[in-house]
Each structure stands twice: as C-alpha cells, then as structure tokens.
Amino acid sequence: MKSLVAWGLGAAAAGSLLASGGGCGGGIGGADWTAGCDVPTQRLAPDIMLLLDTAATMSEPIGDPCVPFCTPPSKWAAAADAIRSAVASTDAKVNWGFAFMGGATNTCDAGAIEIPVGGPTDGIGRLLDSRTSPTGALVGGGSRPMRAAVNQAAAHLAQHRGGGRRLMVLIADNVPQCRPDAPDMLADDVDGTTAAITAAAGNNIATFLIGLSGGTPVDGRLFVLTDSGRVLNGDGGFGASAGSAAGVLESLKAIVAHTADCTFAVPPPPDNGTTNDGPIRVEVNGNEINEIGQNTGGGWSYTDRSLQGIQLYGFACDAVRGQAAPNVSIVFPCVRP
Under a CB-based contact definition with an 8 Å cutoff, are residues 96 and 114 in contact? Predict the structure, then answer.
C-alpha cells in the first residue's frame, strides 16, 4: 500500500484514516458517495518550458521612448532580467526548462533544448549571459523560427507526464518568421505556428505568450497564436503585452501562480478493497466543486488523459492561491459487492 503521508497527508491524519478502515462505511453495491473516502492531496509542480526570441529586433529598446538623458534597456535585457528573477523566486515549485527560439545566427533552425524541464536552473542565467553584450544587447541575433521551436518544445514536454501542467511560454517581440515554403526567412509564419500550438494543445500542452513592446504596439497577430490553444484546451493559454522587465516578470509570476498554486495530484484510492479509482469528486475547504470542461466561472478538470492531476479554475483556484497548506481533497466513492 502506498504511504498516505506520500499522498499529502500528515502522519496524524494518515493514522486516523487507516484506523477507520479508510473512511468508508455503509452502501450496498455500486458507488456510495455518502460514505466516500476523502484523501487530502498536494500540489503538483508544472513543467514550464521558456522559449526566448533571438531575432535581431530583440536588441531594440523596450517600452515607450525615454525622455531626454535616459537610455531604455533592450527587449533582450528586460526579458533576460525577468527570467532570472522569476526562475530564482519560484524554482522550488516549478520544473523550469529553457531554450533559445532560434539556433545559429541568420538561420531558421530552432535552438536546442538547453535546459530540460526539471533540470538545473542555474544554467539558465549562464546561457542568458552568454548571449548578452556588455551594453545589454542580444549577441548573435537572427530570425524568429517560432514554429520549429514550438514543435521541438512540445515534443520534449510530451515525454513528461504524471498529472502536472505542461506548458510553453513564448517571449517574443513580433510574429513568427521562417515560413518553410517562402524563399525569404523573414516571411511571417503565423498560420504554421498557430497549427503547431493547436496540435500541442490537443496533447494537453498549453501555450502562453508574452509580447515585448517597443515604441509601437505589439503586432496583434502575435496574440492570435494562443487563441487556437484556448479553444482546444480550456486554459490553453493567454497573451500578455509587456513594455518593461517588471511587466515581463509580472506576467511570468501570473503564469506560475495559476499553474503551480492550483494544480493538485490525484492519489490512488485507499487500498482496502472498499474504494475504486473510477469517478472522483473534489472538495475545496470542505465544499464540493463541479467538474468543468472549460475555464469559465470556476470548478475543476483533469490536467490530461493520465487522470493523475486536476486543475482548479476561477473561484476554486482563488480559494487556494498563495496558501501554504490548502485544504483540497479527492473523494473516492465506497464500493460494496
């Protein structure tokens, strides 16, 4: 029998549950919810792959033009600073991964997966330093092969299962380039990248996008990319525009808060012959919440087809956000012969 403490129960609570025979009683045949077994659960760390734009335009200033006598940081420097801060402050509750969106200068090849999800995050800072000039510009800027980067990251994330959320965060300052059928590597590839994000969403891999704005607004077509993901996967993703390092950091922290604070494990049912691992119910602070298929209002849904994790939405997520020891339980029905 798997340890109840390993499921998220404290030792005292685990002992109480075992002493009561798993908490089930009554019921004649079938599933008896009135005598169901409540098993407290624990949060699941999300797998988050960061994909950072390496197009030459990332060396341009971020935000609105400065008043005289000031030099705004580059989009690259702002994004790099935000990534360093976000990873350092949330490393304990996120399985971070990292890749540059493009490989070698002036090519349409995706960059390698530099840091696999769950890998050593101290390497992210060194990678960013290796591509940052003394003035804060991007070293070796090229094109923006977003479709290739998304496909590569999605394939990497597909290997990681276990109920936690899996998502890509694209940090870019303009629309995808490198359309395969175009002779010009700068040709936009919105449709192809949208299709790649849609395919990833079908495999329960969400896409979030942070658009970096300069003196002019971010091209609206950039945010169309995540709309396709949202249709297929209730929380497929969202787009946010940022005009400073603080704005990028705020967006990253919002993504972490939503996915890390509100995703929980579905443990095995107590192994005493009186429950099964069929339909479950979810309780937050002692109140049952509804299962939902889309992120509307509030409730819960499975994170993927493994049925090993659940995501809380809306008011249910708000009720546990930021809590060190949230009161979330999985209820298994009692089964009698």
Answer: no
pLDDT of residue 69: 56
Give CA–CA dist 158/126, Å, rounded. 26
- Residue 83 tokens read as 């990534």
The half-sphere exposure of 117 on its side-chain side, counting CA atoms within 13 A, is: 26
Write down the pLDDT at residue 180.
Answer: 87
Q: DSSP label at 213?
A: P
Q: How far is CA 35 from CA 145, 292, 300, 332, in A?
A: 55, 24, 22, 9
Cβ atoms of residues 79 and 95 within 8 Å:
no
* CA 186 – CA 246 distance, rounded (Å): 29
**pLDDT at res. 13:** 34
Q: Where are the domains of the chain?
A: 28-43+263-335, 47-261
Average of pLDDT values for 290-297? 67
CB distance 195 to 61 below 8 Å: no
Say what percent of the chain tops pLDDT 90.
Answer: 26
Contact 236, 206 (CB under 8 A): yes
Residue 267's pLDDT is 85
For the domain 47-261, what is the CATH code?
3.40.50.410
Tell me, what's the pLDDT at 18? 30
